[in-house]
Amino acid sequence: MDIAVLVKQTVDMDQIKLNDNNEPIMDNLPLKMDILSKNAVEAAVQLKEKYSGKVTGIIFGTERSTSTMKEAYAMGVDDGTVIKGYKKSDPAVTGAVLADVLKKSKFDIIILGDQSSDSYSGLLAGILSSELGLNVITNAIGIEIKDKIANVTVESENEDITVETELPAIVSVAQEINEPRLPKVMQIMAAGKKNINIIDGNPDYKDDTRIISDKAPESQRKKIIYEDGKGIDEVAKILKVVK
Amino acid sequence: MKALIFSDEPKNAREILTYLRGKMEMDVISTEDKELPEYGAQKVYFYKDGFVDNLSKFLADHISKNKYDFVFISSTNIGRELAGILSYKLKMKCMPEIFSFEHGGKTITKRFFHGGKTVVEEESDFHMFTVSAGICEAEKTDKKSDVSNINLDKSNYKIINVKSKNTAGTDIRNAKVIVSIGRGLGSEENIKKIQPLVDELHAEVAGSRPVCLDYKWLSEDKQVGLSGKKVRPDFYIALGISGQIQHIAGIRGSKTIIAINKDKSAPIFEECDYGIVGDLFTIVPELVEKLK
Ligand SMILES: Cc1cc2nc3c(=O)[nH]c(=O)nc-3n(C[C@H](O)[C@H](O)[C@H](O)COP(=O)(O)OP(=O)(O)OC[C@H]3O[C@@H](n4cnc5c(N)ncnc54)[C@H](O)[C@@H]3O)c2cc1C
């Protein structure tokens, strides 16, 4: 089975500091594999282990994305392409760039994370399904494959629904699908030596949005904090209106 | 100006209708819901057995035919799938996850970015949006909408199994008072230690993601946050919840937030109105005494 997994590299958002204007300082932040991309890689590698085949990792990023591809290799991805040219979160552009590369090979299943943790847009799976003319199922918590059919279990609030679809298909995964493995030192060492295919993407970014401001939201909360055993009377008084 | 609103969840559709009311004319497409025609849309369309393929086909035709100026799709699983497909098919770029929309000449929207760390305010001439749940509190109007049913084509996807989860009935999104528990509660057993507070305040119990998803002390429909429910009670009482950004995303609509946490530097204290630093197992019983 030929499996593609789409991987996103992000800055470590926990490390973002704010300047005096409450704006994020984006320089020199460490990069890492996005949370749900890890689940996507794990899901792809598990499919390979179960049904045999090959996993191809694809990152639309920059020249600095090789570190994340190495991480994917260490987790079990066989072959990887880094497409250079990523500038900003723009699902339409990302979709077009990825589709260009995905079109050149044949995959039975294309796996990605459901929403990335910077913007939570979650538009990419739908865009790719249109670009490539493939079925799409999102927010998967389980994938079973038989012949050319995938049974994908999708989580919603009140029920888990298992849907049958023909392959090839695009499946985005939720965090609950698995616990991403921690690669062993040997695997990390081996991954470092593996070749990464680096190509130029031709992203067609348009100047169609203008950022007016990008600031940490100012909390309108009162923030009255009591310590040393104090505050119970005050809070009880406030809650009394309920009764 | 005229907009089409789509949501598979009528609750979200009602909120978006309320939010946009007065700004433009609106039609809405959703699943069967008795009250939806009372929220100010001109036309309400109901569909059944909608999947991403038959819905995207229907919506693409319907949007082109009716020449809507704007399309607002609520951010649910299927909503995001559809927004991706429709933005490609109709060549309408989509601004995702907005929680604020203003239009005069240009469109100005707001959404969270960097994982919720910041809010970006953007100017664009986009016409399609996914709308974050809980954009406002839904309110009815006097005006009744025309209602019709849509017949969708048969989907190519086959549902082969549906497993219901045990959900405990009440919808926390409608609660006036919520006592919400986090990992700090320690164990499922300990729920009974906070139950007197719940009873005293006639509250609903909700929880953070680990509590609902990983430990299953509560059912999944009680999860509050970015990937759970967005709640807007009068009082949200957070017990042993650290207040990570993904949790805060679900409680911003609360009128008053009260937090009890033993860690003075817990981020929840940056997002609450009243906070008590201390052990919840000593503070909660004292609070219950005072409330009696
Ligand atoms: C993509 C994504 C989506 C997510 N979506 C959600 C979501 O929808 N909702 C959500 O909640 N989380 C979500 N999370 C998880 C989130 O990042 C946090 O991990 C989670 O909210 C932490 O839960 P918690 O506060 O219960 O636990 P912890 O962070 O472990 O906090 C426990 C707190 O309890 C306090 N405590 C311990 N003992 C006591 C005591 N005896 N008395 C008083 N205080 C005590 C501790 O000081 C601590 O602050 C998401 C994460 C990701 C990556």
Fold topology:
The complex is a heterodimer of chains A (243) and B (292).
Chain A lengths: L1 E6 L1 E3 L5 E2 L5 E2 L5 E3 L1 H17 L2 E8 L4 H10 L3 E6 L6 H13 L5 E5 L10 H9 L2 E12 L2 E7 L3 E8 L2 E5 L11 H9 L3 E4 L8 E7 L8 E3 L5 H8 L4
Parallel strand pairs in A: 1-6, 1-8, 6-7, 7-13, 8-12, 9-12
Antiparallel strand pairs in A: 2-5, 3-4, 9-10, 10-11
Helix pairs in contact in A: 2-5, 3-4
Chain B lengths: L1 E5 L3 H11 L4 E7 L11 E5 L4 H15 L3 E5 L2 H13 L4 E11 L1 E8 L4 E7 L3 E4 L14 E4 L8 E7 L12 E5 L9 H10 L3 E4 L1 H6 L20 E5 L5 H4 L7 E6 L12 E4 L2 H12 L1
Parallel strand pairs in B: 1-2, 1-4, 2-3, 3-9, 4-8, 5-8, 11-12, 11-13, 13-14, 14-15
Antiparallel strand pairs in B: 5-6, 6-7
The complex binds flavin-adenine dinucleotide.
Flavin-adenine dinucleotide sits at the interface of chains B and A.
Describe the structure.
The complex is a heterodimer of chains A (243) and B (292). With 243 residues, chain A is of the alpha/beta class. Chain A has one domain (2-204): Rossmann fold (3-Layer(aba) Sandwich), CATH 3.40.50.620. Chain A has helices spanning 35-51, 66-75, 91-103, 124-132, 185-193, 232-239; strands spanning 2-7, 9-11, 17-18, 24-25, 31-33, 54-61, 79-84, 109-113, 135-146, 149-155, 159-166, 169-173, 197-200, 209-215, 224-226. In chain A, the strands form three sheets. Chain A has a nine-stranded mixed sheet with strand order 11-10-9-12-8-1-6-7-13, with helices on both faces. Chain A has a two-stranded antiparallel sheet with strand order 2-5. Chain B is of the alpha/beta class and 292 residues long. Chain B folds into two domains: 2-149, HUPs (Rossmann fold), CATH 3.40.50; 172-291, Rossmann fold, CATH 3.40.50. In chain B, the strands form two sheets. Chain B has a nine-stranded mixed sheet with strand order 7-6-5-8-4-1-2-3-9, with helices on both faces. Chain B has a five-stranded parallel sheet with strand order 12-11-13-14-15. In chain B, α2 (52-66) crosses α3 and α4 (191-200) packs parallel to α7 (280-291). The longest helix of chain B is centred in the N-terminal third of the chain and has 15 residues, at 52-66. Chains A and B meet through α3, α4, β9, β10 and β11 of A and α3, β5, β6, β7 and β10 of B. β15 of chain A pairs parallel with β15 (274-277) of chain B, so a sheet runs across the interface. The complex binds flavin-adenine dinucleotide. Flavin-adenine dinucleotide (FAD) sits between chains B (182-184, 208-211, 223-228, 240-242, 244, 246-247, 250, 260-263, 266, 279-281) and A (35, 117, 175).
